[in-house]
């Protein structure tokens, strides 16, 4: 790993743990709740302890003044939920454009098992080479998604995270398999730091239980979007997630210290 990649990984994480809040969903879903006033949400989640926020490059002018010195990741592909194939992520920018936008790292989504998987493999392989030349870390969002693919199947997830390492990513995010025991298989499939996505908001306790389970399995943090940015209090929810990721708290302690109710 080059010195540049090492230094920039420290910009998007803390002591090898990562609490990233992705807010690229405006491309996928539109200006959904939490992203209309994205400036306010970025301010809230970074006050709550997010290590980094993540957007598409066009949103960069709305990020920097509001991110309270957190790291910034530019996402370099996308698709819309209503398009012909939501799993067919197409390139939306270059590493150079991300650097120009002030990025500390770039991210790229790959749907392992989708009809467009071959193109996404080529695209990610090319991206990691260019990013490595420039000393920019790559966060691969490696999902198990496609016709007939169970996105929570641990073997599928293990393959997805390993594929990200094989293609030269520095950090990988994937779906959660549902329990710590099965997620161990996912974490063990790669030497990369493994983060989990949040998915559709499932309630504070359930979401934090997933984070706790992933961390117990050896994960290195989260890239958690809607669960946090669509929360009534994104700052408090970020604080709660940080309690588990960075302070190794139980779900109950983390919620309590963040001032959130412990649900039954
Ligand atoms: C909206 C979703 O289903 C998310 O999991 C996205 O696929 C992940 C990504 N942030 C995106 O919006 O492309
Ligand atoms: O970029 C998207 C993610 O990393 C995950 O978003 P989610 O809303 O937590 O699924």
UniProtKB/TrEMBL annotation:
<feature type="binding site">
    <location>
        <begin position="225"/>
        <end position="226"/>
    </location>
    <ligand>
        <name>1-deoxy-D-threo-hexo-2,5-diulose 6-phosphate</name>
    </ligand>
</feature>
<keyword id="KW-0704">Schiff base</keyword>
<protein>
    <recommendedName>
        <fullName>2-amino-3,7-dideoxy-D-threo-hept-6-ulosonate synthase</fullName>
        <ecNumber>2.2.1.10</ecNumber>
    </recommendedName>
</protein>
<dbReference type="GO" id="GO:0009073">
    <property type="term" value="P:aromatic amino acid family biosynthetic process"/>
</dbReference>
<keyword id="KW-0028">Amino-acid biosynthesis</keyword>
<feature type="binding site">
    <location>
        <begin position="198"/>
        <end position="199"/>
    </location>
    <ligand>
        <name>1-deoxy-D-threo-hexo-2,5-diulose 6-phosphate</name>
    </ligand>
</feature>
<feature type="active site" description="Proton donor">
    <location>
        <position position="143"/>
    </location>
</feature>
<dbReference type="Pfam" id="PF01791">
    <property type="entry name" value="DeoC"/>
</dbReference>
<comment type="function">
    <text>Catalyzes a transaldol reaction between 6-deoxy-5-ketofructose 1-phosphate (DKFP) and L-aspartate semialdehyde (ASA) with an elimination of hydroxypyruvaldehyde phosphate to yield 2-amino-3,7-dideoxy-D-threo-hept-6-ulosonate (ADH). Plays a key role in an alternative pathway of the biosynthesis of 3-dehydroquinate (DHQ), which is involved in the canonical pathway for the biosynthesis of aromatic amino acids.</text>
</comment>
<comment type="subunit">
    <text>Homodecamer.</text>
</comment>
<dbReference type="GO" id="GO:0008652">
    <property type="term" value="P:amino acid biosynthetic process"/>
</dbReference>
<feature type="active site" description="Schiff-base intermediate with substrate">
    <location>
        <position position="173"/>
    </location>
</feature>
<keyword id="KW-0456">Lyase</keyword>
<keyword id="KW-0808">Transferase</keyword>
<dbReference type="InterPro" id="IPR013785">
    <property type="entry name" value="Aldolase_TIM"/>
</dbReference>
<dbReference type="InterPro" id="IPR041720">
    <property type="entry name" value="FbaB-like"/>
</dbReference>
<dbReference type="GO" id="GO:0004332">
    <property type="term" value="F:fructose-bisphosphate aldolase activity"/>
</dbReference>
<dbReference type="InterPro" id="IPR010210">
    <property type="entry name" value="ADH_synthase"/>
</dbReference>
<feature type="binding site">
    <location>
        <begin position="143"/>
        <end position="145"/>
    </location>
    <ligand>
        <name>1-deoxy-D-threo-hexo-2,5-diulose 6-phosphate</name>
    </ligand>
</feature>
<dbReference type="GO" id="GO:0016744">
    <property type="term" value="F:transketolase or transaldolase activity"/>
</dbReference>
<dbReference type="InterPro" id="IPR050456">
    <property type="entry name" value="DeoC/FbaB_aldolase"/>
</dbReference>
<dbReference type="GO" id="GO:0016836">
    <property type="term" value="F:hydro-lyase activity"/>
</dbReference>
<feature type="active site" description="Schiff-base intermediate with dihydroxyacetone-P">
    <location>
        <position position="173"/>
    </location>
</feature>
<keyword id="KW-0057">Aromatic amino acid biosynthesis</keyword>
<feature type="active site" description="Proton acceptor">
    <location>
        <position position="24"/>
    </location>
</feature>
<comment type="similarity">
    <text>Belongs to the DeoC/FbaB aldolase family. ADHS subfamily.</text>
</comment>
<dbReference type="InterPro" id="IPR002915">
    <property type="entry name" value="DeoC/FbaB/LacD_aldolase"/>
</dbReference>
């Amino acid at each position: 790993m080059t010195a540049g990649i090492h230094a920039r990984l420290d910009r998007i994480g803390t002591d090898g743990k990562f609490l990233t809040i992705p807010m690229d969903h405006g491309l996928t879903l539109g200006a959904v709740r939490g992203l209309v006033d994205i400036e306010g949400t970025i301010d809230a989640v970074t006050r709550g302890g997010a290590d980094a926020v993540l957007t598409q490059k066009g949103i960069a002018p709305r990020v920097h003044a509001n991110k309270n010195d957190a790291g910034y990741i530019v996402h370099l592909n996308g698709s819309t939920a209503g398009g012909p194939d939501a799993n067919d992520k197409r390139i939306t920018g270059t590493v150079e454009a991300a650097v120009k936008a002030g990025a500390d790292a770039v991210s790229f989504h790959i749907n392992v098992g989708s009809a467009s998987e071959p193109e996404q493999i080529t695209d990610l392989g090319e991206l990691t080479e260019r990013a490595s030349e420039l000393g920019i870390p790559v966060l691969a969002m490696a999902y198990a998604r496609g016709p007939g693919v169970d996105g929570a199947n641990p073997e599928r997830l293990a393959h997805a995270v390993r594929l990200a390492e094989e293609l030269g990513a520095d950090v990988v995010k994937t779906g959660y398999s549902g329990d710590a025991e099965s997620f161990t298989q996912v974490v063990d499939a790669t030497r990369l730091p493994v983060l989990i996505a949040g998915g559709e908001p499932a309630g504070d306790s359930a979401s934090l239980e997933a984070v706790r389970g992933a961390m117990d399995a050896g994960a290195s943090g989260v890239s958690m979007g809607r669960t946090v940015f669509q929360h009534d209090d994104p700052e408090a929810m970020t604080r709660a997630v940080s309690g588990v990721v960075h302070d190794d708290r139980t779900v109950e302690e983390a919620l309590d210290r963040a001032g959130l109710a412990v649900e039954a």
